[in-house]
């Protein structure tokens, strides 16, 4: 009996290992396996909120409460965490006398961007999915290339591509409280193509002129939370080996992305890029 139990256990381990190895997004696959083993499933909430002393169950009113909350949360979080005036400059990178040039995209680049989109069936505002876009890639690559180049040339980003389906996802705590939800924005899949082309050019520009701090590990190719932790631990070990004291100050900003002030970010970024070419992309 013990033999068969061990055989079943080993077979399950082999199955999970193969599933993870074959997955494009290994971290996501690991969590899917863990949640399945724990019996957790994605919940579809019939939202009911407590707001200003009232119990709200009407779907439209619930949506309005969430919309108002998500629209104003950034400003409120900034006031809670920081001073009122964020106009002061704060950067570790030097200035660059050269403006950023947005080179035109090619059809090959657009096809490569489409091919690297996450292959899913999630519904965006334009009712296109990355899977559908991949299937018709050869037929639409020419107009997509033209549209992307016009956006880069004129610095104008189509307003309709800024529209997103915002889904409130419960994270923890009382489900009746809007503070316990975070917004997930489902953007038009075509907007992801244009943004990818722009991001590639901005990152290339910033890498060329070394505008990224060496201490930045987030959102940089080849770096991650693992490399940040390794560098931090290595620093501590090196100092301790030389009989020196080490002190660390750690900041944990709750809902960090919610505290981003778009005006401040846009002003900071505009100092290191050609504002004529991309002035409308940051708004």
From TrEMBL:
Organism superkingdom: Eukaryota
Location of the Reverse transcriptase domain: 170-260
Keywords: Nucleotidyltransferase, RNA-directed DNA polymerase, Transferase
Coiled-coil intervals: none
Molecular function as annotated in GO: RNA-directed DNA polymerase activity
SUPFAM superfamilies membership: DNA/RNA polymerases (SSF56672)
Record has GTP-binding as a keyword: no
UniProt-recorded name of the protein: Reverse transcriptase (RNA-dependent DNA polymerase)
Protein's organism: Popillia japonica
Lineage: Eukaryota, Metazoa, Ecdysozoa, Arthropoda, Hexapoda
């Amino acid at each position: 009996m013990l033999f068969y139990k061990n055989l079943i256990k080993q077979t399950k381990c082999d199955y999970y290992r193969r599933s993870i190895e074959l997955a494009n997004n290994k971290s996501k696959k690991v969590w899917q396996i863990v949640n399945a083993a724990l019996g957790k499933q994605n919940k579809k909430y019939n939202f009911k909120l407590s707001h200003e002393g009232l119990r709200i169950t009407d779907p439209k009113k619930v949506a309005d409460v969430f919309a108002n909350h998500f629209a104003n949360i950034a400003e409120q979080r900034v006031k809670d965490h920081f001073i009122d005036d964020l106009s002061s400059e704060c950067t570790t990178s030097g200035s660059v006398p050269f403006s950023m040039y947005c080179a035109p995209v090619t059809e090959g680049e657009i096809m490569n961007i489409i091919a690297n989109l996450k292959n899913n069936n999630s519904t965006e505002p334009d009712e296109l999915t990355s899977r559908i876009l991949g299937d018709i890639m050869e037929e639409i690559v020419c107009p997509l290339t033209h549209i992307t180049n016009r956006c880069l040339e004129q610095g104008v980003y189509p307003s309709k591509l800024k529209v997103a389906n915002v889904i409130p996802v419960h994270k923890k705590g009382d489900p009746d409280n809007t503070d316990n939800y975070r917004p997930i924005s489902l953007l038009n899949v075509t907007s992801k193509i244009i943004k990818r082309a722009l991001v590639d050019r901005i990152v290339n520009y910033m890498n060329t002129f070394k505008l990224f701090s060496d201490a930045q590990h987030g959102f940089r190719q080849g770096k991650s939370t693992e490399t940040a932790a390794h560098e931090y631990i290595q620093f501590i070990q090196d100092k301790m080996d030389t009989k020196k004291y080490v002190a660390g100050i750690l900041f944990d900003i709750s809902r960090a992305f919610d505290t981003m002030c778009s005006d401040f970010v846009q002003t900071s970024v505009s100092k290191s890029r050609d504002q004529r070419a991309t002035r409308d992309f940051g708004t």
